[in-house]
Structure formats: structure tokens, C-alpha cells
């Protein structure tokens, strides 16, 4: 543990020299911000489906542009 405290002291000194001192300690964690627009299960499902379809369409377009597949007409 002495190596770790020496390393922390060195980092603290570096922060003080750079002017990056913090008012709260590093160990304290902030509470997460509340979600502003919580989604219903139906909205989550639709969002996941839209994302899946979007990835499929982009993949198909990539295959068409790189000429790995061709349209039948």
C-alpha cells in the first residue's frame, strides 16, 4: 500500500499545480441524474425494432454499394 499512497500524493500534487483541485473527494460518488422521459415497455420495444430494421437496411445498402449482391432487375 505505500506505493499506492505515494502515487496518490504525486497525482494530488500534479492536480494542485495544474489548478485542477476538486471540492469533493474522489471516493464520493454522485447520485445518478433522474431520467427525464422514462419509456414504457411498448416504446422500448418499438425503439429496439426500429434500431434493428435500421441496421438491416444499412447493411443491405452497404452490400449493394460494394457490389457483393445485385438486385434481380
Report on this model:
58% of the residues lie in helices and 0% in strands. The chain has 73 residues and is mainly α. The longest helix is centred in the last third of the chain and has 25 residues, at 41-65. 0% of the residues are buried. The mean pLDDT is 85.
Tally the helices: 2
* Strand proportion: under 5%
| Strand and helix order | HH
In angstroms, what separates the terminal alpha carbons?
Answer: 71 Å
Low-pLDDT parts are none
Q: What spatial form do the alpha-carbon principal axes imply?
A: elongated
Question: Which descriptors apply to this entry?
Answer:
73 residues, mainly alpha, 58% helix
Short characterization:
By secondary structure, the chain is an all-alpha fold. It has 2 helices and no strands. The mean pLDDT is 85.
Amino acid at each position: 500500500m505505500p506505493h499506492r499512497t505515494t502515487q496518490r500524493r504525486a497525482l494530488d500534487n500534479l492536480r494542485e499545480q495544474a489548478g485542477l483541485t476538486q471540492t469533493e473527494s474522489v471516493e464520493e460518488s454522485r447520485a445518478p441524474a433522474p431520467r427525464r422521459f422514462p419509456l414504457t415497455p411498448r416504446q422500448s420495444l418499438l425503439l429496439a425494432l426500429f434500431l434493428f430494421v435500421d441496421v438491416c437496411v444499412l447493411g443491405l445498402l452497404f452490400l449493394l454499394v460494394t457490389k457483393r449482391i445485385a438486385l434481380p432487375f
